């Protein structure tokens, strides 16, 4: 027995026994993958399929007798519902504004924290902390202690400067939400862009410096192209996260005043949990999935491309 | 000399930016050590005699903090362990016994992360309702697991890929079974990576708010729901709310400080190194 194993190990070695092993292992491999695959199928893909199905059904929990095939009825209602268009518009405004702020500020901060100065590590750690704060806490801290028109810190600062304090959440609700979400996510952009900056090709920078390039040319021709990839990833990831913003709105404006801060997730939540309209909210959910997919397709293609580059190495 | 001066300038700007970003957190911490009267004042008090009163109220029996904290801890912990138990075998198979379908499976798993939660909210709510899983710790655990599984599989896979393949071949040649190879050879080598993966999953599950707010009411409610319950408390409980928030946020922010690199690796699916 022992001699047999040894013979196999020392003798032919390499490819033959390797192939034998992988042929023998094919079955266990499937069994190893199955639990994770089945779990994701059951919790993500099956419900997604059901959402599609419900979106074509007349289905309101309050009117159990009315169930039946609705065709594109729910989608037709959706397209004529002013609130849905508001929600769609708000979602896009939120995504675009938060992207502009977080990526712009994130890039500036990444460049700043890429330079060496005293206590840089600690300063960077403080600056990225907001990302780890629970969204509900973010919402309540900003709403109460910073944005409050009378007792908030910002109002106090404005009064001290002789300005009229602003009732942020009542008069600039969307701007307030954008500020809160940007505060949370600028650290994310910062962290990823900084990681990108730190992997800059040093030799190329040396080379252009020797050629007498100034700081701007160096930034324009080396840093930007290298960061392009990283920026792409940040934009795609953040878009998907911003599309699904919920807790910050839930904890502060509850989608109001009126529909001023109702985004797509909040619209779906209201229709499902307060109007009990399963069909209509499912149709809106499919809208959200399609919107997310527009970004996800590019991102997934990028991840998959990276994967092949990785295996080639 | 000149370089040194610009260095000091950078330090000033860098620290100023850091303090501005950190300020809301600092303000929350300060408020937590105030009395309700000093917390709710038109002129903010920066210097005050700190009191633990709000922490005492927040932690008092009947205030509920411990109930929610237990749920947060239990659901985050169990979902992380369950996630690892599902992710490790899958990642092991994909990293060491790749087939033609491996890339597809991996990318498919990653892509499920990009289905917005609202896309599956309604069926899950209805199924959970009929199974009695609404407001149930296990219902929440399964959702947290599903939410983190793509990231976890990806991360464990990327750590396994760093392990030289020769080691697996050597174990095969020595006659180790697949299970033995996984548990005795690969897991010990990838332990730091597994710890990072677990840490990230823990942070994400603890901070998760969407499912907690929609799927729980009281029994399985987490700290996110507890904190959200302060949303209608106009000015009455700012100190208490801050104390509860500090207790909720601090462990995770501190863990987050140590998990910065893993965060980048996990959340960008290896697209940024």
UniProtKB/TrEMBL annotation, chain A:
Q: Which SUPFAM superfamilies match?
A: MalF N-terminal region-like (SSF160964), MetI-like (SSF161098)
The ranges of region (Disordered) come to: 1-22
Q: Which Pfam families would you find in this protein's record?
A: BPD_transp_1
Renumbered to this chain, the Low complexity biased-composition regions fall at 1-21
- Membrane topology per the record? Multi-pass membrane protein
UniProt xrefs under PROSITE patterns: ABC_TM1
Query: According to its UniProt record, where is this protein located?
Result: Cell membrane
Family of the protein in this entry = Belongs to the binding-protein-dependent transport system permease family.
PANTHER family membership? BLR7065 PROTEIN, INTEGRAL MEMBRANE SUGAR TRANSPORT PROTEIN
What name appears for this protein in its UniProt entry? Sorbitol ABC transporter membrane protein /mannitol ABC transporter membrane protein
From TrEMBL, chain B:
Which PROSITE patterns does the annotation name?
ABC_TM1
State the UniProt keywords alphabetically. Cell membrane, Membrane, Transmembrane, Transmembrane helix, Transport
Instruction: Kindly list the places in or outside the cell where this protein is found, as annotated in its UniProt entry.
Output: Cell membrane
Instruction: Give the chief site where it resides.
Output: membrane
Membrane topology, from the record: Multi-pass membrane protein
| Top-level taxon in the UniProt lineage | Bacteria
Source species, please?
Kushneria sinocarnis
Q: Which GO terms describe its cellular component?
A: plasma membrane
Which family, according to UniProt? Belongs to the binding-protein-dependent transport system permease family. MalFG subfamily.
- TM spans, by residue? 12-33, 73-97, 104-128, 140-160, 181-206, 237-259
Specify the protein name: Sorbitol ABC transporter membrane protein /mannitol ABC transporter membrane protein
Domain ABC transmembrane type-1, residue spans: 69-259
Q: Which GO terms describe its biological process?
A: transmembrane transport
